[in-house]
Amino acid sequence: MDALTALQTRTAAPRLVEPAPQGAALDAILKAGLRAPDHGMLRPWRFLVVSGDARRKLGELFVEAMQPDTEERRKKLLESPLRAPLLIVGIATPKEKDGVPAIEQINSTAAALQNMSVAIHALGFASIWRTGAAAYDPKVKQALGLSSSDAIVGYLYVGTPTVSERPVPELAIKDYVQNWG
């Protein structure tokens, strides 16, 4: 699939199953992320790849850290990492550099996740980007070995879609773009 087709046809896939990309396909996806725009060439990102039994362990971490107040919320947290056979956790680790604010470094990490999402689609797999309270919880960050200044930008759930691509309405450029000046 060519780059423009991948960019213009990628959609989120909420139901994902095996197989997930592995080996050379997973490496290609991760390399696509590492090509994201990066002001100052700071490489402010890190990625955790979570698969197999580690997904269950991540769900247990979510429950332990978030202390849900109902059984329904507990079950949802526990099972959330099991919605896909593979997760990629995008982490921004902002560095001090004049002229490169932390927000740009967080944006760079988001761009890396987007690059991965498009690469996943181009290789015939699917993904959905999720955050939720567990992305912002200090106990989750600590348990994942992150510092308080690190930011979990997103959890990219990856696998094979169980349904055909959802139709997404075509957006009119004129509704979102203006010429200035």
Structure write-up:
With 181 residues, the chain is an alpha+beta fold. The chain has one domain (11-161): NADH Oxidase (3-Layer(aba) Sandwich). Helices cover 38% and strands 18% of the residues. The chain is built from 6 helices and 5 strands. The model has no long low-confidence stretch (mean pLDDT 96).
Descriptive labels:
181 residues; NADH Oxidase; five-stranded antiparallel β-sheet; globular
Supply Rg: 17 Å
Residues in helix, %: 25-40%
Give the ordered list of helices and strands: HEHEHHEHEHE
Instruction: Compute the number of strand runs.
Output: 5
Please state the average pLDDT score: 96
Number of domains: 1
Global geometry: globular
Q: Bin the strand percentage.
A: 15-25%
Major sheet characteristics: 5 strands, antiparallel
The DSSP helix count reads 6
Classification by helices and strands: alpha+beta
CATH architecture: 3-Layer(aba) Sandwich
CATH class descriptor name: Alpha Beta
Spell out the CATH superfamily: NADH Oxidase
Low-confidence stretches: none
CATH topology: NADH Oxidase
Our measurement of the CA-to-CA distance between the termini, rounded to an integer number of angstroms, reads 37 Å
Short précis:
By secondary structure, the protein is of the alpha+beta class.
Layout of strands and helices, then pairs:
Layout lengths: L2 H7 L6 E2 L5 H11 L11 E7 L1 H14 L4 H9 L6 E7 L9 H21 L3 E5 L7 H6 L7 E11 L20
Antiparallel strand pairs: 1-5, 2-3, 3-5, 4-5
